Automatic annotation (TrEMBL):
This is Transcription factor domain-containing protein. Residues 108-118 have a biased composition (Low complexity). It comes from Phaeosphaeria nodorum (strain SN15 / ATCC MYA-4574 / FGSC 10173) (Glume blotch fungus). PANTHER family: GLUCOSE TRANSPORT TRANSCRIPTION REGULATOR RGT1-RELATED-RELATED, TRANSCRIPTION FACTOR, PUTATIVE-RELATED. Keywords: Nucleus.
Length: 352
């Protein structure tokens, strides 16, 4: 909000007065003091970048000419973990932030291209072996921060690509796939299952905001990009509900964001009402997932599940023997549909 922006700029002004970005002046300081001031600069840099994304504001701090130097007065683990976070936030460079601001101002992200998205995604992915080795030396609390921050940044890149309609359900590249958030939900579920809530919650409202944005994006894809089969839909819903339950239990999640997530849960619940069918009176929901004409997602996707349900309903008519296998398939799909419906209907979250 405005207060956070004011205090952030005030802190930055004081840091600039110290001229930490001047290597010659920094050289006159003792190594521990120089490292301390470098950490202070980067701390402000990270927070300003986060606020720039959260509130669509301009950032004024350039990256410092160096990472914090080694400091014998703090644990090596703390030093290494902080450097890893800095490296992630350095990816929010001038081009990235300007593209993000453009989405708010005009809905356009003209500088974002497929090659830019692929490049940013490669930077975020890094080297799996090196990353695994670096994470192994950190505490569970540090790993939680790094892991969730990385997935949040990947979500931001994907949203920029979506703003330029660069996504496709047929793309072989994960970063350009409409289904990326669905795959992310599977990965994130596995990751948070191996973390304690305390290791995540200790990072406060910032990490809760990151989890909110990831969960919100996953919900949008579930609503607007139907799976090819109901079995796949059931798996997606299960992953989403696990993450939703995890996020909603954080006390730092404010009522506005909580309400947004619960509204999307309600939308999913209305998409999958309980269906009953018998030989004389079929009652199958056939159009409830069709995108609305004014829905911006309609430009990039159309419902497959609804069409499949229409085919099921149409197959109810007729009594020739060639339709018996189709009846068996139909009833199997109906059972899966009702499993999804029951799972969603039981997902009730009371007031925080």
């Amino acid at each position: 909000g405005d207060a956070a922006f004011f205090y952030m700029r005030d802190a930055i002004a004081n840091i600039q007065l110290l001229r930490i970005d001047n290597p010659e002046l920094a050289a006159t300081l003792s190594p521990p003091e120089r490292s301390r001031r470098q950490r202070m600069y980067w701390q402000a840099y990270i927070h300003e970048r986060f606020l720039a994304i959260l509130d669509y504001r301009h950032a004024i701090m350039p990256p410092l000419y160096t990472l914090p130097e080694d400091d014998c007065t703090i644990p090596v683990q703390v030093h290494e973990g902080f450097n890893q976070i800095i490296k992630l936030f350095r990816l929010l460079d001038t081009d990235f932030l300007q593209s993000w601001l453009d989405t708010q101002a005009s809905g356009s992200t003209g500088t974002v291209t497929s090659s830019w998205v692929e490049s940013k995604s490669r930077e975020l992915e890094g080297d799996p072996e090196t990353d695994a080795r670096d994470l192994a030396n950190l505490s569970a609390m540090q790993r939680a921060d790094l892991t969730i921050t990385r997935e949040w940044l990947r979500t931001l890149v994907w949203r920029l690509a979506m703003g330029q309609t660069l996504l496709s359900s047929r793309s072989s590249k994960e970063c350009l796939s409409l289904l990326f958030p669905i795959r992310l939900s599977q990965t994130l579920r596995h990751q948070v299952s191996n973390m304690s809530r305390q290791d995540i919650g200790v990072h406060g409202s910032s990490i809760t905001q990151k989890l909110f944005e990831i969960t919100d994006t996953i919900a949008d894809v579930l609503i607007h990009v139907p799976a090819a089969t109901l079995d796949e839909t059931a798996l997606r819903i299960d992953d989403f509900l696990f993450i939703l339950d995890f996020v909603l239990l954080f006390p730092q999640l404010d009522q506005t964001r909580r309400g947004i997530l619960l509204e999307k849960l309600e939308r999913l619940q209305t998409m999958f009402p309980e269906a009953v069918s018998n030989a004389s009176s079929p009652n199958l929901p056939v159009d409830i997932q069709s995108p609305m004409g004014n829905d911006p997602w309609y430009q990039v996707t159309q419902s497959k599940t609804a069409a499949g349900l229409e085919e099921i309903a149409e197959a109810q008519a007729g009594n020739t023997t060639t339709e018996i296998p189709r009846l068996e398939v139909r009833h199997g799909q109906l059972a899966t549909w009702n499993v999804i419906s029951k799972r969603l209907s039981k997902a009730t979250f009371g007031p925080a």
